[in-house]
Amino acid sequence: MWHEFLAHFPKSSRYTLGSKIDSLFIETIKFIIIAKYLNPKDKISYLKKASLGLDLLKFFLQLSWEVKALDNKKYIALSEKLEEIGKMIGGWIGETKKLLEKTPVKK
Q: What is this structure's pTM?
């Protein structure tokens, strides 16, 4: 979805703001994939990095909308998806924390 929108960014924003958003998408996905394979103790830090990346994405997408590089329809479509993903990551963090609380500490 994002790459379809990036292709229609104005040239003045495509290689600055558009590129930044593109990098954040890749980075956030990377943190989510890494977290998937880690033990619960190490997973939390990557999930928090993914959550931060998501917040930054939301910020830069809003900025894109404000400078009219992204129209209302595209902004809303992306924002709704990111909001849903944010809830999923938040739930994953919460479940991982609960799991850590239940796990006995090894000496």
A: 0.87
